[in-house]
Amino acid sequence: MCTGRVDLSFVLRAFSNGMDGVFLGGCKYNDCNYGTQGNYHALNMVLLCKKIMEHIGLNPDRLRIETMSSADGNLFAEIMTDFGKQVKELGPLGKGEGIDDLVLKSRIQAAADIVPYIRLVERERMRIPVQSQEVYHNFFSSDEFAKLFKETVIEKLVDSQIISLLREGPQTTGEIAKVLDLTPSEVSRHLNSSSRQGLVRYEEGRKCFALA
Amino acid sequence: MLRNDYGYGKFKNVVSSLDYERILSPSGAYEGEILRASDKKHPHKIAWIQCVGSRQVNPAGGNSYCSAVCCSYAQKQVILTKEHDAEAECTIFHNDVRSHNKDLERYFQKAEQLPGVRFIRSYVSIGKEIPESKNVTIRYSTPDDGVKEEEFDMVVLSIGLNPPANYQALADKFGIELNSHGFCKTSLSNPMEASKPGVFVSGSFQGPTDIPESVYTASGAGSQCGELLDYRRGKLSKERIYPPERDVSLEEPKVGVFVCHCGANISRVVNVPSAVEYALTLPNVVYAQEQLFSCATNSAKEIADMAKEKGLNRLVIAACSIRTLEPLFRDTLREAGINQYYLDMANIREHCSWVHSKEKEEATHKAKDLIRMSVARSSQLKPLQEFALNVNKTALVVGGGVAGLTSALSVANQGHEVYLVEKDTDLGGMARRIHYTLEGLDVQEYLHDVIRRVYQHPLIRVYTEAAITETGGFVGNFITKVKAQGRVTEIKHGATILATGAEVYQPIEYLYGKDDRVITHLELEEQIVKREESLLKTRSLVMIQCVGCRNEDRNYCSRICCSESIKNALKLKELNTQMDIYILFRDMRTYGLKEDYYREAAGKDVRFIRYEAQDQPQVEEAVDEDGRNVLRISVTDLILGKKLEIDADKLALAVAVIPSAGSQEAVDLFKVTTNQDGFFKEAHVKLRPVEFAVDGVYLCGMAHYPKHIAETISQSYAAAGRALTLLSRDSVVASGAVAEVNGNDCISCGACITACSYGAIEFVMTPQGRKAGVNPPLCKGDGLCNTVCPTGAIQLKNFTDEQILSQIDAAVAGL
């Protein structure tokens, strides 16, 4: 199997399990063992995942991708030592970021839940022709990407986070807004669309939202 | 062969390169640590002396030839030394740097650019041993400072290759002749053919040879034996019978864990008994034991026996990398009557003991983690079936140069039909422009004979002026469309040999194309053969080497040009002993036995002037003292340290060999790859030098890398030999670890189809409608399809989401 086989859901599962850092090592770019440039797929996934991590409050430095050949033993050792040091400095997952364990788990779960959706969006709109690492980095830090990311992944992620929260029990708009660090009107907008899709319902009696 | 003059055997800290190789080895005297014999301390300042016993002007006690491999192996030793100790100071004292093999020019640069590494071009002599420190001094000279004496902690002598010790007895026994150096005398057109029919040689008995060439001359010799013995092929082979496979799909997982000591490679660091004890505590593990060498025949039998006795249905071998031994342990499972895919290997050697030798406790902990992850995955494994594919016995050879002709003949001589496709109107390729070799082969006579044999061969079908329009299929079953003379023919073939050749660089440098007196080395050869008048009248001729390569645009050595220039220089001296010939070079790369001709040319007064890459020769049109129009070539003489001006009547450029357009077309059609210079990329430089990563497709000749005719012939026989290992079988086995679609989950989005570079997935009509379907023989198991599928409908078997997630979960379970 190729680095390109490493799935967004694998990385999220590792973080969800409490891993403090995830490292991906692959063949050098343009020197793919399979001749399929799968390592660019991996780079695409990693850059996207970093954006998701940022959004849910995880330090994106906890995820790292590097490429090397089988003759680069010393480089590998150097990188791993460096990454190990870096992850130690970041501290345990969540603690370093100042997020409560349960909140963190629920946020990662919310992201994991929309992986199928992310795959579709990634394929349609966030995959660029294989050229060079630089092109990838530029794309993922561009305004164009930021806008796209906000309109697609973040939108769905908020929906998913709300549903994840409601799994714990019914909540009011205000409570949800506080946990997700959003304005109540934004939360309302998401709740309205989710309720139209039949995912959530409003409990008149308790004046709060619950899973449908 | 070492004489005393380098202090070997006298000074403790002078070692041979072979001694040093052992020192670097984990199984060497110091277990992979670099230590000095005198005080068992790490040396920090190490010197390499090149050409020890090789390239000697007075060969008494040494050899006159170049050993061809030492430049690169010394660079490797430097790189490894720097990996051991980044602070180490490494100095290489060398003559010409001969990095004439594929990708080795870059390797040389890699070594040269490491901090603390010096390459010093100088003859040296060993000074003395310092009594207190046992350090050794080396005297050498530099252009700036004159002779210097410098102290080193350790000195490595780059010794060369000799013929085998008992070469005369060997030759007598087989009735074959030797050459003047004691290597086997071989045919000018076939380096594997000894002087007695039916006796073939491969590897360094032909003369100093590196590993890739040794491997392909072995395959080539094999193919020629095949030509003689084809009528008996398969008569002695016996099919292996395995016990019937037990159906364990309804049983609970019963995992057996075998933890290997690997001699002491693992157990020196990892506490193996403790790992075994731990394995027994894991879910589904019913048996665990340790073994000294799990890969030993008796150990493999022990594993099979225990599996039967304990009723195991999953095996975890905690040992080394799957890259080396997975096939062996799969076989062990089959011997035990278990499906071979019920195996997982925990790599506690490369991934653990070798890299954590200083942290024994943590390494043991990590070994346990790895075993736990393997056990978790093994419980999720599914039995997979490999399947047999029929093999079409026909071969397609693309390219009708020497490479294609040779391999086509060898395949056909072993009873297989061959289709030979050439884009030109005539067969022969680049060799049509070559008339003689350095060693004296009459190339045109040879070529005509080969072409005649190809046309007369009843099993070879030749298409000239032909183009391949389309190709598809997979190992053993390819279909290719060839368009020739307006007709399209569909060819079904089991194997493909790509011999698409190379081209020569069209120079823009040195007034080429602007002044008729500036020609390429190929044009010079043409003029020599035609005895062209302008050439016969030439009083002074200059050759410039490395035109168009060993530069930023083409960062490789074209390998053949040094010998080509010497070949032409010697011919010119035959025509006119009075002609002044100058060769301006960067490194003369007359490797191996070709060194003799370099010496011969120097002896005949061919003048060799070295220049540096950053100070290229300059050429201008000028008028000399006698009023003749000349080409004035100015170059810095590095020995005298001043500009020289040479007035020449002719300038021959040793231009680069560049990849052919045909190779690029082949890349697109046959889904093969090239290296960054555009030459075909073999599956493995040393282990599979004539095969592509794509099964059933082979390569040879200059499309792989520039090479001399004899070398091309060796490699072409090798490609034929490898193709025969496929074509001689009735069927091939394809891996079971391929992608599979669950039609119920497939939403026909096509994501997997676009992700697959092998064209292994297509839409197929099923009772549930249009769904993605995998053509297993085309699937290489990279798993990209799996990652893009929004519904998880397509799964890479043996690496399914479930199996990998189980490992990820198990990774934390012990924390």
TrEMBL record, chain A:
Gene Ontology MF terms in the entry: DNA-binding transcription factor activity; iron-sulfur cluster binding; metal ion binding; oxidoreductase activity
Keyword Transferase: no
Xref: Pfam families: FlpD, HTH_5
Gene3D superfamilies, per the entry: Winged helix-like DNA-binding domain superfamily/Winged helix DNA-binding domain (1.10.10.10)
Residue span, HTH arsR-type domain: 161-202
Stored InterPro entries: ArsR-like_HTH, HTH_ArsR_DNA-bd_dom, MvhD/FlpD, WH-like_DNA-bd_sf, WH_DNA-bd_sf
Domain F420-non-reducing hydrogenase iron-sulfur subunit D: from-to ranges: 1-91
Keyword field: Iron, Iron-sulfur, Metal-binding, Oxidoreductase
Signal sequence extent: none
Top-rank taxon: Bacteria
Keyword set includes Metal-binding: yes
Protein name: Tungsten-dependent benzoyl-CoA reductase-related protein bamF
Species name: Desulfosporosinus lacus DSM 15449
Classification of source organism: Bacteria, Bacillati, Bacillota, Clostridia, Eubacteriales
Automatic annotation (TrEMBL), chain B:
InterPro entries membership: 4Fe4S_Fe-S-bd, FAD/NAD-bd_sf, HdrA-like
Keyword Iron appears in the UniProt entry: yes
Family annotation (PROSITE patterns): 4FE4S_FER_2
GO molecular function, a single term: metal ion binding
Annotated 4Fe-4S ferredoxin-type domain residues: 737-766, 770-799
Pfam name, any one: FAD_oxidored
Keywords carried by this UniProt record: 4Fe-4S, Iron, Iron-sulfur, Metal-binding, Oxidoreductase
Keyword hit for NAD: no
Superkingdom of origin: Bacteria
Listed PANTHER family: COB--COM HETERODISULFIDE REDUCTASE IRON-SULFUR SUBUNIT A, FERREDOXIN:COB-COM HETERODISULFIDE REDUCTASE SUBUNIT A
The protein's name in its UniProt record: Heterodisulfide reductase subunit A
Lineage summary: Bacteria, Bacillati, Bacillota, Clostridia, Eubacteriales
